[in-house]
Design brief:
The structure holds 3 protein chains of 3 kinds. Chain A is built from 3 helices and 3 strands; from the N terminus they run ααβαββ. Chain A is mainly α. In chain A, β2 and β3 (89-92) form a beta hairpin. The longest helix of chain A is centred in the first third of the chain and has 18 residues, at 23-40. Chain A starts with 6 loop residues before the first helix and ends in an 8-residue tail after the last strand. The model of chain A has no long low-confidence stretch (mean pLDDT 89). The two termini of chain B are 19 Å apart. Chain B has an 11-stranded mixed β-sheet with strand order 1-3-2-4-6-5-10-11-9-7-8, with helices on both faces. By secondary structure, chain B is α/β, with parallel strands linked by helices. In chain B, β7, α9 (272-287) and β8 (291-295) form a beta-alpha-beta unit. Chain C is an alpha+beta fold. Chain C folds into 3 domains: 9-298, no CATH class; 306-406, no CATH class; 414-476. Chain C contains 15 helices and 15 strands. In chain C, β13 (255-259) and β14 (264-267) form a beta hairpin. The chains are: A mainly alpha, B alpha/beta, C alpha+beta. β3 (89-92) of chain A pairs antiparallel with β9 (146-150) of chain C, so a sheet runs across the interface.
């Protein structure tokens, strides 16, 4: 199936996930993740060509909501848990470049 | 007093909500330091609530089916104005500005919320040792774990801190701790109980469910919290459950299949004493008139592998919102990206980081088909296997956990060892089916064993029938 | 308009348009969807992505998405939602709920006024982000001291319309956007205000030697806030790319930012990284599968599209659809049709609307418009006089004959009548008071009396309507 997950792979996903790892952590996480993923290799034994994936255990569809406004927000309550606020907005260090 | 008896006792004037609460607060006072079931005991709020309920009762009004029953809530369920931490540093001190739907339903039913219980961080674990605030200890033997991730809730009931508790189950996190602590734990059908306000771990697997000392008490709690919620798209469009007749209907004529793979068959690691209790359970059900035989559910053996791709994948996305911008503690830095990295790195524990990275990898470009895509197909296989089994059987049976409660620190070195705790419970989450754990017998170490009853989607009723019979038989034995 | 540098080159353009849907509430929560407003007042746990919050799909947004799909000749189909994962402070959940593999609308086309069909690859639903502003350093991202985030816009429903690379010039592109905007406004899906951000255009531009079939490397240009910018950005970008190629280098695929002040595009990042969004099916939502009955119901209640309105007005005015395109685009076709129905000369109607009423009709009523044109075609007013009267009517409303009289146009006719009416009024003061103070029925009776008197005096030559107008004018003043 796939090669064992490498140290570089782990460094890459850590970046994608906004986590920073020490060298030691990179080593130990790499071996742990590789062990776990090896178990996923069990799945290779199965005949899955004709099988549809299940995204959801429920056979529901078309769950919709009427376009009616709810209660007016209590802005204070929401801003109260913000780490930093200015002018009723959430304050953050400069945010560079929009990746979208 | 059973939980069930409390509301009528209060309405009759035999006792008061205050009295019931104080009894339990005393129990907490006696042993909480030793056990650490709670992240937060809500003494003041609980006393105010008990007062309000007693005032209503005095006027002859009915506060609801859970009148005056103290209840402990797993700390990954939002309680307005009250800290909800998920036992993580990244949510330390966070007070949600809203209540989870089930919290509203509990309050409307007259329950008295007594505290927020400890869990494995973000519900990831099987021992409650992954909590950022220290582990919970098993009340039956404090050198041992209570199970996880809802270890605090299970311990709270086992220790007599509250007759009812709420947990969440994604891969076994209600049932396994119930088994290890000797109490009843139920994972309902996926969508049976609203997830609005449950901090998401794996969205297509998570369900909220009850812990109780008895099957009847668990049924009572499940009835109150179940039922459609328009705020949760994945909520089943059905009214709340009515399980009253299930508790006395018995199992006469029911066909029950013992899952071969989990009872000495393909999957190793299930201890002999647990298998012994399973045999006894089979006996009990047979004596009560059920037809019990072994049956194979082949894809059970793949459940763990599929789960440990799907759950972390969804979790990696669900936990991305913890970025220090809108809530929770922040580690400051020169740019937003640096701030996000620093906040998340400092705020998450190792198991959470492990799963986030695992999940990110499984979804990343080039690996999606091999891991996530493949696991979704295995999920279909498991559902198909269950569907076949339920053509022949009304219920399935297995142990809940492979062993009795293990010592603290026993499995913390090797994540894979810990993951094996979920072997018997995981398939129900993948299939979305209900399952419950009922205490039945003891291990050679004298610690409780739990037996798992599994039912097809929506069939909690039949499941509770068997649960009640097992309980009666177990009480007869001890 | 080609330049020397572009001779022999073909510009290939594909546009991505995001339009905010005109719903009361957001796509996945019941927080309000309104423009402007104090920061962070239209929010709720779902808009902020608070732990434990869950999305629930807005039915009206789905209806509008289907309207857009039908208007663009798409196949409306079963669809699912997907998470697009990336970190940015204006993304409350650090993922955007969008549609990826299975969008609600696929495979349609938009017809330009000249009849050319531009392919529509897909039109899908997704949620908008919050808005960040950058403080310090002149508001430019790179020099800011800090940023502030407002989540009012987070979760607002968007429809993303992806056009095929079938456009070949800046003019084409502007026409496409104008027509698309007309369609969205006509069906009530969006108010299409680029200047308010309720319609945003990103364009993909590439160039190739004329006659080549293969596509060149394209660049995406963002931050285009008006039709004019769109044209300028395309022309700049095409020239930039031709310049690169003719100097022997290769165009790098990248995302570029249009700077309106500078008149240039430039990269936001030094190296283009293909971002890994790790799309997967949204587990908090279930599939959307609109029934054939619902789709039919929507189709049958679809307002007339600009294309049909052009055809209708062209027919009524005996012209070609392209001749009335501007009037339809300005939403003045109903006005035009009504005037024509009242007997106004069609070509004068069109000319006035196009030349003198392009900014809107203000206080001008359909009746007054028809009456004015009548005066013009009768020869009672010259074209210049008509234009003046028209401007007044737009400004203040009123009756064309009266306004003309006030200006002294055709002074004789009306002032003679006016003097006559005055004398009649003086002879019948009681009837006049009754008229002034009477209710509608009384006035009708009395006006009949006065008109009769006027007719007697003018031997039936007076225009009864004009008399009535003068009576009313006097009564009100």
């Amino acid at each position: 199936m796939n090669e064992r997950i490498s140290r570089d792979d782990v460094a890459h996903v850590a970046r994608l996930a906004c986590l920073s790892l020490t060298d030691d952590e990179l080593d130990s996480f790499t071996s742990q993740l590789a062990d776990i993923l090896e178990h996923a290799a069990d799945l290779d034994a199965l005949e899955l060509e004709e099988i549809e994936p299940t995204a959801h255990p429920l056979p529901l569809a078309n769950v919709l909501r009427d376009d009616e406004p709810g209660a007016v927000a209590d802005r204070e309550a929401f801003l109260a848990s913000a780490p930093q606020v200015e002018n009723n907005q959430f304050k953050v260090p400069p945010a560079l470049g929009d990746p979208s | 007093m059973n939980a069930r008896e409390i509301p009528s006792a209060i309405r009759n004037g035999e006792t008061t909500a205050k009295e019931v609460l104080e009894t339990h607060l005393k129990a907490i006072q006696n042993r909480e330091e030793e056990i650490h079931a709670f992240n937060l005991v809500m003494e003041e709020e609980a006393r105010n609530e008990a007062e309000r309920i007693d005032a209503l009762a005095a006027k002859g009004e009915d506060p609801g089916p859970l009148t005056g029953i103290p209840i402990a809530i797993k700390d990954n369920i939002c309680t307005q104005g009250v800290p909800t931490t998920c036992s993580s540093k990244i949510l330390d001190g966070w007070r949600p500005p809203y209540d989870a739907t089930i919290i509203e339903r509990l309050r409307d039913a007259g329950a008295v919320i007594v505290g927020k219980t400890n869990l494995d961080e973000f519900a990831m674990g099987a021992s409650t040792e992954n909590s950022a605030f220290g582990p919970t200890r098993n009340p039956l033997d404090t050198t041992r774990v209570p199970g996880g991730s809802s270890g605090g809730s299970a311990a709270a009931v086992a220790a007599g801190f509250a007759p009812l508790a709420i947990g969440s189950d994604t891969g076994g996190s209600i049932r396994q701790p119930a088994a290890l602590c000797g109490v009843v734990g139920v994972k309902p059908t996926y969508g049976r109980v609203s997830r609005y306000g449950l901090v998401a771990f794996a969205s297509s697997l998570d369900q909220i469910g009850p812990f109780a000392e008895t099957v009847a008490d668990a049924a009572l709690l499940l009835e109150v919290i179940s039922g459609h919620d328009p705020l949760d798209t994945t909520s089943i469009p059905e009214p709340p459950l009515d399980l009253s007749t299930a508790l006395t209907q018995g199992v006469e004529g029911l066909r029950i299949g013992v899952i071969d793979e989990l009872s000495g068959g393909a999957i190793e690691g299930i201890s002999d004493d647990v298998l012994g209790c399973l045999e006894d359970a089979v006996q009990a059900l047979t004596s009560a008139g059920a037809i019990v035989e072994r049956t194979s559910v082949p894809s059970t053996v793949y459940g763990l592998s599929a789960y440990y791709v799907i759950a972390p994948a969804e979790a990696s996305s669900n936990l991305a919102r913890y970025d220090g911008v809108r809530f929770g503690p922040r580690v400051d830095a020169k740019t937003t990206s640096e701030m996000m990295v620093a906040t998340r790195t400092a705020g998450f524990g190792d198991e959470v980081k492990r799963r986030i990275m695992l999940g990110t990898y499984a979804l990343s470009a080039g690996y999606y088909d091999a891991y996530y895509g493949k696991s979704q197909k295995v999920r279909t296989l498991i559902m198909n296997d269950f569907a076949n089994a339920y053509k022949k059987y009304d219920l399935l049976l297995s142990p809940t956990a492979p062993t009795t409660a293990f010592p603290l620190g026993d499995k913390t070195e090797d994540p894979l060892q810990m993951y094996l705790q979920d072997i018997c419970t995981i398939s129900s989450n993948l299939a979305g089916h209900p399952a419950m754990s009922v205490p039945f017998g003891k291990g050679t170490d004298g610690l409780p064993v739990g037996i798992q009853v599994l039912a097809s989607a929506m069939d909690e009723h039949t499941m509770f029938r068997a649960g009640a019979v097992l309980e009666a038989s177990n009480q007869g034995k001890s | 308009m080609t330049d020397d540098i572009l001779d022999g080159w073909e510009t290939v353009i594909g546009l991505e348009v995001h339009a905010e849907l005109a719903t009361n509430t957001k796509l996945f929560s019941s927080a309000r969807n309104v423009f402007g407003g104090e920061p962070n007042t239209n929010i709720d746990p779902v808009s902020l992505g608070l732990p434990g919050s869950l999305p629930v799909l807005n039915k009206k947004a789905v209806e509008l998405a289907i309207r857009v799909g039908l208007a663009l000749n798409c196949r409306v189909q079963r669809s699912v939602f997907a998470r697009k994962n990336y970190f940015y402070p204006d993304m409350p959940k650090a993922y955007q709920i969008s549609q990826f593999d299975l969008p609600i609308n696929e495979g349609g086309w938009l017809e330009l006024p000249d009849g050319r069909q531009i392919g529509i690859e897909r039109a899908h639903l997704e949620e908008d982000t919050g808005k960040s502003s950058h403080v310090g350093g002149g508001g430019r991202i790179h020099e800011a001291d800090y940023s502030l985030v407002d989540y009012n816009r987070a979760g607002v429903p968007l429809i993303e319309i992806v056009g095929a690379p079938d456009l070949r010039s800046a003019d084409d592109a502007r026409e496409y956007v104008a027509e698309l905007r007309s369609i969205l406004v006509a069906i009530g899906a969006s108010d299409g205000k680029m200047e308010e951000g309720s319609m945003r255009v990103d364009c993909n531009v590439s160039v190739r030697p004329q006659g080549n079939q293969e596509f060149g490397t394209r660049c995406e240009v963002k931050n285009i806030n008006s039709l004019r910018s769109l044209g300028r950005a395309i022309e700049y970008e095409a020239r930039r790319q031709v310049d690169i190629i003719t100097s022997g280098q290769q165009v790098e695929q990248q995302t570029r930012h249009w700077d309106e002040a500078d008149g240039r595009t430039h990269t936001l990042r030094s190296k283009e990284e293909a971002f890994d969004y790790r799309y997967f099916s949204e587990p908090d939502l279930v599939p959307l599968d609109p029934s054939p009955e619902w789709i039919t119901e929507i189709q049958e209640s679809q307002p007339p599209l600009p294309r049909q309105r052009r055809i209708d007005l062209a027919k009524a005015s005996k012209t070609e659809p392209r001749d009335v395109a501007l009037i339809v685009q300005k939403d003045l076709d109903e006005f035009a049709l009504s005037a024509i129905e009242k007997g106004a000369d069609a070509s004068r109607v069109l000319v006035h609307l196009a030349n003198n009423l392009a900014d809107g009709v203000g206080h001008l009523t359909e009746d007054a418009f028809a009456a004015l044109i009548h005066l013009e075609t009768n020869g009672d007013l010259s074209a210049t006089q008509a234009k003046t009267v028209l401007a007044d009517l737009v400004d203040k409303g009123g009756d064309p004959a009266q306004v003309a009289a006030d200006h002294g146009f055709e002074a004789m006719d009306t002032s003679e009548l006016d003097a006559l009416i005055e004398s009649i009024i003086n002879e019948h003061p009681d009837d006049w008071s009754a008229f002034v103070q009477g209710d509608a029925e009384e006035r009708k009776k009395k006006s009949g009396f006065f008109v009769g008197q006027v007719m007697k005096m003018t031997k039936g030559q007076a225009d009864g309507k004009v008399v009535n107008d003068i009576l009313l004018h006097r009564a009100e003043n």
